[in-house]
Write a sequence for this structure.
């Protein structure tokens, strides 16, 4: 099995490097754009409780809609290829980031901000020394969830002709070819695990030491 898999990957006719680059490019652009859209939206809606409530619930509903629906909706406008798959993945990736960003900002105790102002801290100092360290770990958790979902779902991009590992998975299922199926599914699983572990490490890195100790203490008590 391993020998046939290596032969398949090394065969130039299968264009494995090209399919890998297509997949990585699609996932990377979708993740970056989901962050660039989700974080500002989360900050914007957090300023109003009603808007925040609506945005959070709409985001939850969007996560329940299959990606294939978004691909079908975008197809009449964008046609086949890279763009409809990208739009569908961005829509999939925004809700966790938006939800965590809004929740993180609204979770900051106003009394803490007032106390900082009473100590003579400027607005910029409050943002950089208090608000940012408190919200970054929660936003990072949302980015981690979003990125893993995008990587795991991007195989559906093959349905629009965007390429990637999904083509091997589709052909493997259609032709009962285990080699192609593994050639497509194994790198997707590996990439999802790498992103989960790396972004999990980043999440711990941006968490202030005091919060890490508090979380460890609460966990030990539980």
């Amino acid at each position: 099995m391993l020998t046939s898999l290596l032969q398949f990957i090394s065969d130039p006719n299968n264009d494995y490097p090209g399919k890998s680059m297509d997949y990585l490019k699609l996932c990377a652009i979708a993740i970056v754009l989901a962050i660039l859209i989700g974080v500002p939206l989360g900050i914007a809606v957090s300023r109003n409780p009603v808007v925040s409530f609506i945005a959070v619930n709409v985001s939850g509903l969007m996560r329940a809609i299959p990606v294939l629906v978004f691909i079908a909706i975008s197809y009449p406008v964008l046609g086949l290829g890279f763009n409809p798959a990208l739009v569908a993945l961005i829509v999939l990736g925004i809700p966790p980031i938006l939800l965590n960003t809004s929740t993180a900002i609204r979770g900051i105790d106003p009394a803490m901000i007032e106390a900082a102002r009473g100590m003579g801290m400027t607005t910029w100092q409050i943002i950089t020394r208090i608000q940012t360290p408190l919200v970054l770990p929660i936003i990072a958790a949302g980015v981690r969830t979003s990125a893993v979902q995008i990587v795991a779902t991007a195989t559906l991009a093959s349905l629009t002709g965007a390429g990637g590992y999904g083509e091997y998975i589709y052909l493997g299922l259609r032709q009962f070819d285990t080699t192609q199926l593994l050639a497509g599914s194994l790198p997707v699983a590996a990439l999802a695990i790498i992103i989960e572990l790396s972004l999990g490490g980043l999440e711990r890195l941006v968490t202030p030491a005091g919060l890490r100790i508090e979380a460890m203490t609460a966990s030990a008590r539980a």
In short: The CA atoms of residues 76 and 84 lie 9 Å apart. Confidence is low (pLDDT under 50) at residues 213-222.
